[in-house]
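Q: What does the predicted 3D structure of 4-aminobutyrate aminotransferase look like?
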Amino acid sequence: MTDNFERLMSRYTGDGVYLNIDGVRYIDAASGTFNLQLGYTNDRIASKLKAQIDRCAHLSSAHTGAMSQCILEKLIKHTPENIDRIWMRDVTGSGAVECAIRMAQKYTKRSGVMSLFLAHHGQSLATAQISGNAFRLKNFHVNIEGSLKIPVPASVMSDPEDSPPQENYYDIEDIYQCGSNENIACLIVEPILGNGGNIVLPDVFYRNLRDFCSKKGIVLIADEVQTGFGRTGTFFASSGYAKTLKPDIIVFAKGAGGIGIPTGGVLMSKELDVLEPFEHSSTSGANPLSLIAINETIKIIEEEGILDNVVNCEAFLRDGLLSLQKKYPDISGVRGVGYMYGFDTPNMEYAAEAIHIAEKHGLIIRGARYGKSRALKVRPPLICTKVHLQEILTKLDATFNEMQQSPFSQSEVA
Ligand SMILES: Cc1ncc(COP(=O)(O)O)c(C=O)c1O
């Protein structure tokens, strides 16, 4: 008799950018949980993992420090110049963000964290508290003393006519002076706010953050859990689109595991290499399977032209989404960089229904509970070709065509 667990698990099979559920094929424009840079399956990673499972699936991080250094050697080709150290003892983004905060606190001997409204930095007690939305905080109680949240600017839009003016942002120092006790260790920012609705920050805002942090001796952390590992067309956003941010620390996780193998870590400048091993670690941090996955993912990104693919196909994706925005009044505010796009729908109920209708058309897209929950996100695996992107756009077209009949639609139905 087949075990029920086996039956349930075997309902799902991946095939590159596709997920089959009970034999029905979906193209996944959300890359799983925004973590499948290389899709659901990859032969190179799978064969390395299988070989390692036969050797041993676990090693204490006491044995894997040298392997983490090999990964650092590969990664520093892609990091901003000042960043040349690694701390790899995490398998989640939340853990890695906490590691970065610890480094900043120990280095500055201060406590507080500045972060942005609408930001998402994780679901542990501390990272939920610094995230910029209250719904995950209800019922739970934690506070990093001295922490402060600052407003997020309006997103840069793909259609320049929709974009806000690039000047006159609020003065961060004013907020700091009015709202903090000056006990701030670090400022953490996602170069593009992922869960917040795909908010593309303007270059001038990155510069303002960098200037402010330098002036106050505050450690600037780029949370690249979503934007890292090629998502925006460069290895890290802070070495491409967001290079003027010049962070002191980069946090990575999610896509670093290529096909969803959990991994996470922190890249930092020499001065911030201050932690003792016992100060930030976890049982599975830097386990062999994580290390194999990240090592092979970096090699595949480099050897198989993954970044070039994103750069070469981005305009196709963006123009396709902008055409849909022209066609359907229910779509507005197309925005993004690389393969990290999003747009708004009229309201929360509409967005939820669109996700459901898209599924009927064999397309997986995801929404966001942050803000007014009306944004939808299109973030395909980085291996998507123009043919895959066309399939996603065609299915979106069919979805929004059907959505014109929805009671939540704002378009006039003849
Ligand atoms: C930008 C960002 N930081 C941190 C995290 C937390 O990562 P994890 O869920 O692996 O703990 C997430 C997860 O969505 C994220 O998007």
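A (community wiki): The structure tokens above were generated from the sequence. The CA atoms of residues 22 and 128 lie 35 Å apart. Residues 92-94, 97, 120-123, 190, 194-195, 223, 225-226, 253 surround pyridoxal-5'-phosphate (CB under 6 Å).
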